[in-house]
Design goal:
The chain has 251 residues and is mostly helical. Among the domains are: 24-85, no CATH class; 95-201, Methane Monooxygenase Hydroxylase, Chain G, domain 1. The chain is built from eight helices and six strands, in the order ββααβαααβααββα. The chain has helices at 63-85, 93-108, 115-126, 129-132, 137-153, 163-188, 206-209, 241-244, and strands at 29-30, 49-50, 113-114, 158-159, 211-218, 221-228. β5 and β6 (221-228) form a beta hairpin. Bound molecules: flavin-adenine dinucleotide.
Amino acid sequence: MLDRAGIDIFKDRFEQYMAFVGSFWEGGVRINTKCETNVPGLYAAGDSSGTNFTGPTYAALGSGMAGAAVTGYRAGQSAAQFALDAEGPSISESEIARFRDSVNEPLKRESGFSTDHVLTRVQQTILPYEVRMVMHEKRLQAALTMIEFFRDHFLPKLRAVNTHDLRKAHEVRNIMLGAEMQLRAALFRTESRGSFYREDYPRRDDENWLKWVMLKEEDGKMKLWTEPVPKEYWGDTSLSHEERYPLQYQA
Ligand SMILES: Cc1cc2nc3c(=O)[nH]c(=O)nc-3n(C[C@H](O)[C@H](O)[C@H](O)COP(=O)(O)OP(=O)(O)OC[C@H]3O[C@@H](n4cnc5c(N)ncnc54)[C@H](O)[C@@H]3O)c2cc1C
């Protein structure tokens, strides 16, 4: 459906709603219309895929299941095709051993922070309504300060008690990284747009912020910058938010 609409989601990035509740329209691994990621042989579908086709607000009810069904079907087809043509992987024994060691590291620790403890602390920091939904620089900064502390002090001492817990340890690491990225991006965007609401910048600011916020790792730090949203995606910016997104305001 996306290529029928003339959208190449691999190149054409859309602004994303930032939240941790988990749903297809909040981002994920960026894919193209074949559900390929930029890692050959890795495909993503459903909530784990970043199609971004709704922009900064939830365009239509039911898009979650529709998106999951379409991307699931396509990812399956593409992955099967890749498997047919692919040669066996070549990886050295030493590389496997190094990878196994690093994956199992939390299992080997005899004492440390439990995964449940760290997960609960992260959730308590980033999920409250006054941090996540109604945002303000001071509260976002306070949450970021805590996340940085957890990252530096809890993660290096994360302890898994069994292999189920090991899965959680890796999820907690990823959640921590996602939390930091989202808080930094939220602090960076000094306006409100769609479902993204900053109490200290309550207005949409198309002049300065019709842009995507980009993040990447550089020299061990998160670098942030903006890229303009291409004009063909703008729509009629003279309309009010209510007129642009009528579905959001239906009784
Ligand atoms: C509260 C809520 C209401 C929603 N309402 C609607 C709605 O009205 N209409 C709509 O269209 N969409 C709705 N959505 C969105 C929709 O439910 C999702 O977009 C859709 O279910 C995503 O499907 P999925 O297969 O990608 O992921 P999921 O349905 O989350 O499936 C992922 C599966 O993977 C399993 N899993 C996770 N980790 C592992 C692992 N390590 N090993 C093995 N298995 C694992 C999970 O247990 C899960 O069963 C709603 C979502 C929520 C949260």
